[in-house]
Design a protein that fits this description.
Elements: H1 13-37, H2 42-50, H3 56-63, E1 70-73, E2 89-96, E3 99-106, H4 117-132, E4 137-143, H5 151-158, H6 160-170, E5 175-183, H7 189-193, E6 196-200, H8 211-218, H9 224-228, H10 230-237, E7 242-244, H11 247-259, H12 297-303, E8 310-312, E9 320-327, E10 330-337, E11 341-342, H13 344-359, E12 364-370, E13 372-373, H14 377-381, H15 384-397, E14 402-411, H16 412-417, E15 427-430, E16 435-437, H17 441-458, H18 465-482, H19 485-490, H20 503-514
Helix pairs in contact: 13-15, 17-18
The structure holds coenzyme A (COA).
Coenzyme A binds next to loops.
Length: 530
């Protein structure tokens, strides 16, 4: 077993500069997290409390085992959009009665908890995590249903929610709905399609159409309780399996339901060694300027148990570090970019390493800092496309769980080869230092400039250098802004932006979650182009 030793000089000005830059970015991210935590703001929060109701996060906290952690997902969803940060829903993985579950809790203080397109994306991502990792799904429901002004963007895709709930049930993934308030129209199918339903006396309102709509449709006079109250559903319609006296009772009942699911999972590994290198230093590993290389072993040394790492092919394809470690006791294979560029040797090494991990049923961790595959005549002639294709084939057809962390750059097809979001990592988190786009902003603006210049020449037109400079600057600024973690997290292209110092904890929780489903390597891959 090899123990990694750090070469990081924490007294050097470069370390201080990197740490200061990272802490400044973290403060910016924290300010955005605070917006999500504030929900709909003091007015709506006070009104909600005044009605004797618990906030979404309080419901989650009471549902989970005391003092157990909650891995919140996509807290920055909807950032940069017209909708409030957080997308009016709280999602995450937590432990209920000893069982890891995915929890989805509407935030009724944000526009009545109504679902906008970002709520949809965030909810579906949480459901995907439940499905792939076979985690029971608990919905804490109180929502005005579809956000009516944006109905055209959610009505048709949003229908998948109800389809997926019943498919989960068919696949043996338990689904539980606890209804705290409104769950009307399409929302009524959340309890309708769930395996277990809890409603709260005088609080739950579950009907296809409320009194005004019924009056319009049939002329019948009705009231909330007789149309969709908890008592009615528990005694008459049979939609509610449990009638809770209040919110606390409902959450206690949900915990009892989970306790009776009779789910077993292997115990987590006992007493793993902490890293020998100090995880606090992770804030100073990535230089503020991503063009400066850094050694990803400095990251591995601070997340792996005992900082132990057995490197695979260390002298071959050195710009990709591959090797075996344990993290919170779980065996993992690690792929981490070193010098940024992926050449043919790195790509082939990755393809081989991913196959080995599949043979050994070992989950893979991808630490991204890549500017993509190498371009240029020599490399094209050397077969960089087919070698990159080997790596992408391996990552696409690998069936062991993949966890991705964007620590630095993640550009171009390199993002794909390193298991970017479209390649179905079980979880994908970003550090505040990450940047991801089709290519770097300067390169992209430069390519556009060359294309525009050639196009003008072909048409025999003059090309204005002044306009070119303005266009480049505008494009560079836009691409830079679109490649930042806040923007990408806002679009739910990751599962959250994390403090680098939390990486080991977050990955440990992910590894625990993924072991709820069988961890089995692939029996075969696509045809490797030689
Ligand atoms: N779409 C868009 N905005 C909505 C909304 C929806 N479905 N439901 C509520 N909101 C907005 C309200 O307009 C209000 O905005 P404002 O404060 O800026 O005026 C805010 O959210 C809070 O709503 P309010 O009605 O004051 O809250 P409440 O807690 O008293 O009632 C509901 C919440 C959900 C019971 C009530 O708003 C409602 O019945 N909404 C419509 C439900 C519906 O029929 N949805 C269609 C289902 S497909």
């Amino acid at each position: 077993m090899t123990v990694l030793r750090t070469r990081l000089d924490t007294a050097a000005p470069a370390f201080t500069a990197a740490r200061d830059a990272m802490l400044a970015k973290l403060a910016e991210i924290d300010a955005e997290h605070a917006k999500a935590l504030a929900g709909g703001g003091p007015h709506y929060v006070d009104r909600h409390r005044g009605r004797g109701k618990l906030l979404a996060r309080e419901r989650v906290e009471l549902l989970l085992d005391p003092d157990s952690p909650f891995l919140e997902l996509s807290p920055l969803a909807a950032w940069g959009s017209d909708y409030p940060v957080g997308a009016s829903v709280v999602t995450g993985v937590g432990v209920v009665a000893g069982t890891e579950c995915v929890v989805i809790a509407n935030d009724p203080t944000v526009r009545g908890g109504a679902s906008n397109p970002w709520t949809g994306r965030k909810t579906f991502r949480a459901m995907e995590i439940a499905e792939r990792n076979r985690l029971p799904l608990i919905n804490l429901v109180e929502s005005g249903g579809a956000d009516l002004p944006s109905q055209s963007e959610i009505f048709i895709p949003g229908g998948r929610l109800f389809r997926d709930l019943t498919r989960f049930s068919a696949a043996g993934i338990p689904t539980i709905a606890v209804v705290f308030g409104n769950s009307t129209a399409g929302g009524a199918y959340v309890p309708g399609m769930s395996d277990h339903v809890v409603m709260v006396r005088e609080r739950s309102k579950v009907f296809l159409g409320g009194p005004p709509l019924v009056k319009m449709a049939t002329g019948e006079e009705s009231d909330d309780e007789s149309l969709g109250g908890a008592e009615m559903h528990a005694r008459t319609s049979g939609l509610a399996d449990h009638l809770a006296a209040d919110e606390h009772d409902a959450l206690r009942t949900a915990r009892r339901i989970v306790a009776r699911l009779n789910r077993t999972r292997p115990d987590p590994p006992a007493d793993p060694d902490p890293p020998r290198c100090d995880p606090e230093d992770l804030v100073g590993v990535v230089p503020a300027d991503l063009k400066e290389p850094f050694d990803p072993r400095e990251v591995i040394a601070r997340i792996a148990d005992g900082s132990e790492f057995d490197e695979f092919k260390p002298s071959y394809g050195p710009s990709l570090v591959t090797g075996w470690a344990r993290l919170h006791g779980y065996p993992v294979g690690v792929l981490a970019n070193a010098q940024g560029v992926l050449f043919s040797a790195e790509s082939q090494k990755a393809a081989q390493f991913i196959q080995l991990a599949n043979r050994a049923d070992t989950p893979l961790i991808f630490l991204h800092n890549t500017t993509g595959y190498m371009v240029g005549r020599e490399y094209e002639q050397g077969g960089i496309i087919k070698h990159g294709a080997m790596m992408i084939n391996a990552v696409s057809n690998s069936t062991v769980p993949h966890l991705s962390v964007l620590v630095g750059a993640s550009y171009g097809a390199g993002h794909y080869g390193m298991c970017g979001r479209a390649y179905d990592p079980r979880f994908l988190f970003a550090w505040p230092s990450a940047k991801s786009a089709v290519m770097g902003p300067q390169q992209l603006a430069g390519v556009l400039s060359i294309v525009a210049r050639q196009s003008a020449a072909a048409k025999g037109r003059d090309y204005s250098e002044e306009q070119d400079a303005a266009m480049r600057e505008m494009v560079e600024n836009r691409i830079e802004a679109e490649s930042l973690p806040l923007f990408l997290s806002g679009r739910v292209y990751d599962d959250g932006v994390i403090d680098p110092r939390d990486t080991r904890t977050v990955l440990g929780m992910c590894l625990s979650a993924v072991h709820n489903a069988p961890v089995r390597g692939a029996d075969g891959f696509g045809v490797f182009r030689m």
